[in-house]
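Quick one, tokens below:
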């Protein structure tokens, strides 16, 4: 189970959670009332989900119904949007829309997401708040040049065209140069090839910035294209799926950063993980 419940009785004040999740023997997701919390004033029920397990989505739907029937406000913290990469209208099935309809069907008062793949799926969601990653990367990974402290990197790399806007925002906030990389993907097989990167300075360390790492092929191909040793390369991804051979990223990057939007992958070894709860808590009705 990758869902956590909390109950707010005012801005910044929590009480014992009202709800707990359970499953019936036949497999149906269910919610039970663990604490009545009567007489504590208007309540806000908060659910935080890690990852995108389908069972968790049904648990969230049951939680939303139970909270609504008790006249509580509901906040769904869903940092990783399931299906957000299936965001092209010619996809069959159109996964982003399928998931968006399911989430909207919960009828929650607020959905908080973090660094979505594009604006397509958030644009389909009701009552959504989108948090972007720029300040988080600046604070936890690169450092603040304008506050007198040392910065840990000397440039930002966008691994492909789709990552340029996100990486450029980080580079601008950190007052660092942006370097662009390219790749080719075979539309029939999905195989990646043709990795290139703009010329990089002969000294310094560089941070690759993107939203999602799945199997890691894009980033390993890019690292090889730069010709740099791993000590001069770092990787930040907002959502670390880390499937397949992603553990081999350690052979190409001196350090890897992600958030706790996904469940931890022990096989990945050492990963620098940034907790999202502090910024999620700051965006609650």
């Amino acid at each position: 189970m990758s869902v956590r419940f909390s109950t707010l009785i005012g801005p910044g004040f929590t009480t014992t959670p009202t709800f707990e999740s359970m499953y019936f023997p036949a497999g149906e997701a269910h919610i039970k009332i663990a604490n009545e919390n009567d007489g504590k004033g208007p309540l806000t029920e908060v659910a935080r989900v890690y990852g995108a397990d389908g069972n968790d989505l049904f648990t969230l739907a049951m939680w939303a119904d139970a909270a609504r029937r008790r006249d509580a406000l509901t906040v769904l913290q869903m940092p990783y949007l399931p299906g957000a990469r299936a965001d092209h209208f010619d996809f069959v099935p159109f996964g982003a829309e399928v998931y968006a309809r399911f989430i909207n069907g919960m009828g929650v008062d607020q959905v908080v997401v973090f660094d979505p793949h594009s604006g397509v799926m958030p644009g389909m969601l009701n009552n959504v708040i989108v948090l972007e990653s720029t300040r988080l990367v600046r604070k936890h990974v690169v450092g603040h040049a304008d506050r007198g402290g040392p910065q840990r990197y000397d440039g930002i790399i966008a691994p492909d065209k789709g990552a340029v806007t996100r990486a450029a925002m980080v580079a601008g906030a950190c007052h660092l140069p942006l370097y662009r990389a390219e790749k080719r993907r075979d539309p029939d097989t999905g195989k990646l090839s043709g990795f290139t990167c703009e010329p990089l300075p002969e000294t310094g360390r560089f941070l690759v910035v993107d939203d999602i790492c799945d199997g890691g092929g894009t980033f390993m191909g890019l690292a090889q294209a730069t010709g740099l040793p791993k000590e001069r390369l770092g990787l930040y991804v907002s959502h670390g799926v880390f499937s397949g051979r992603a553990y081999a990223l350690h052979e190409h990057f001196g350090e890897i950063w992600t958030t706790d939007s996904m469940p931890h992958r022990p096989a990945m070894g050492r990963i620098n993980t940034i907790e999202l709860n502090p910024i999620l808590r700051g965006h609650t009705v």
